[in-house]
Structures are given as structure tokens and as C-alpha cells.
Amino acid sequence: MSDTPFSYTFTEDELKSLIRFLRKKQNDLPQELYLLYSVLEKAIYDSMSVEEAEEFFL
What count of other Cβ atoms lies within 10 Å of the Cβ of residue 20? Predict the structure, then answer.
């Protein structure tokens, strides 16, 4: 693999869709993806109000 850093800016909709997908597959995630999942989940959670987060994560 190249030593060039990877960078991508997710749209809010992409991020929400990815997190929903990862949450559904959480028990099947390889250990190497768990940190990514945690960081993405925190990023979307931190961008929401309490009400939005409750609705999104329930």
C-alpha cells in the first residue's frame, strides 16, 4: 500500500448512511475497523442535538 495519506470528506448523508450500515454489522466488524466505526459514530453524535441523536440511534 502507498505511504500517501488517504483523505475523504463525507457529506452528512454519507456519514449517516455509513454509520447506520456499520451499526447493523457491528458484531461482524473486523477488529481493524472498530476504531473507524467509533470515530465516525462520535463525529455524527457530536453534530446532533440530544433529540436528533435519540431519534437517530434508537
Answer: 13
